Amino acid sequence: MIKSYGEFWRHILTFNAKANRSQYWWPIILNYFLGGIVVTMIEIALGHPLETIYTWSDLYVNNVGKFVVCIVWIGTWSLKVRRLHDTDHSGWWILMQLVPFIGAIWFFILMILPGVSNSRWSRNQNQL
């Protein structure tokens, strides 16, 4: 779990490798829970929702939060492409998520498929 999460951050801009199921799902799950915990703690400390801006410090916290979300989004994007490579699909299949409802279901199915041993992408992210 910790190893997969460390690899997520080390290979944040790696698009030309593969990621197996555990290397994909652990960072996705951990980012979801850690994000919820951090946002809740910040909102408790501020005393109001993050989107509400009353002072300059609220604006600063809001902008830092947006920056962190952008970094995590880029890392998740590259991780999804690596996971698609493990199932021997092109990274362009990520655009399937843009199709309402059916696209999300189809993409989820692609993420839970087992990896292919003779994939076009030969290296796993932990071999980089």
Automatic annotation (TrEMBL):
Residues annotated as transmembrane: 24-47, 59-79, 91-113
Annotated protein name in UniProt: DUF805 domain-containing protein
Keyword Nucleus: no
Keywords carried by this UniProt record: Membrane, Transmembrane, Transmembrane helix
Any GO CC annotation of this UniProt entry: plasma membrane
Pfam family for this entry, one: DUF805
Domain of life: Bacteria
InterPro entries linked: DUF805
